[in-house]
Amino acid sequence: MLEKFERIHLANLPTPLEDAPRFANETGLSKLLFKRDDLTGLAGGGNKARKLEFDFVNIIKGGYDVVITTGGVQSNHARMTAAAARKLNLDIKLVLGGADFKKCQGNLLLDVLFDAEIRFLIDDDENDHLNAAMEKWADELREQGRKPYVIPIGGSTGLAALGYVNAMKELSEQFGQGKVQVVLTVGSCGTFAGVILGAKLFMPNARIIGVSVSRTAEAIKTRTLELIKESKNLLEVNPEIKLDDIEIYEDYRGTYGIPTEAGKKAVIDCARAEGIILDLVYTGKAMSGLIDLANKGKIDKNVPVIFVHTGGFPSIFSFADEFNDMAKITKM
Ligand SMILES: Cc1ncc(COP(=O)(O)O)c(C=O)c1O
To answer: What is the pTM of this model?
Structure first.
């Protein structure tokens, strides 16, 4: 059923499924594996590569000449969309929002490297405002005779979520269909929707656990179910998934884009135990949720856990000040 959807090659697949024995030991889990979607490639890797493979088919077939998308100032989605646009010889415009910045660092630096034209909403990352700015820009471009293709925030559509239905098929081939708890970061919900639907189809014994980095649990449930419905219609499948089947935790998000102490600790501990880089905006917060949920007995320590590492490492460089006092450097 997935085969009938064309994809443009952007992601290096399958991504590895790696054991993390030292970090598992530190967190008291019997088994912890990382699904390394931080290694998809596309200018630093991450979950968006799988999603964009579907969007860019429409963009190329529809003869669009410029891609517009939006996100926070350290948006991984924006960086990867910019890379994909350049790879496919398309122009790229980004509407970014958030706290004003002094330096182009992390993802923003890469956006600049890809020569994305950027409109920046200072101190404003409200989704409605970002979308409105994007639509206004698209209108301006149409008036100039251009053909813009607008990708919504996070690239989350029912079509893009098929990238994660496919990821679950891939994971079932690597892990099998045994009992497992799959934990992932949730932002604009496309990845979560795909993982939930993919699990229903390919890993029926998997419990899917989302950790929010931005929206409330209630908002996530509603949006995720909408996306799942869209994906089900596209695939012409109909497994039953209800609002109450969606397991999501909102307590680890802090303020979107601002590091939390627990998230920072997870980033540091994971780097030191496994040599794996999480980030302070997304995966570090989700990992702090995984650890706390395991400590509270809400994640079963005796059942294997797979953490879907959705990427995001470039933003770590924009938070250099967070780590300065840890440096053990002797100048000789
Ligand atoms: C590193 C990283 N992880 C997770 C997510 C969340 O994915 P989604 O927006 O599909 O919920 C994002 C989204 O931007 C991300 O950049």
So the answer is: 0.97
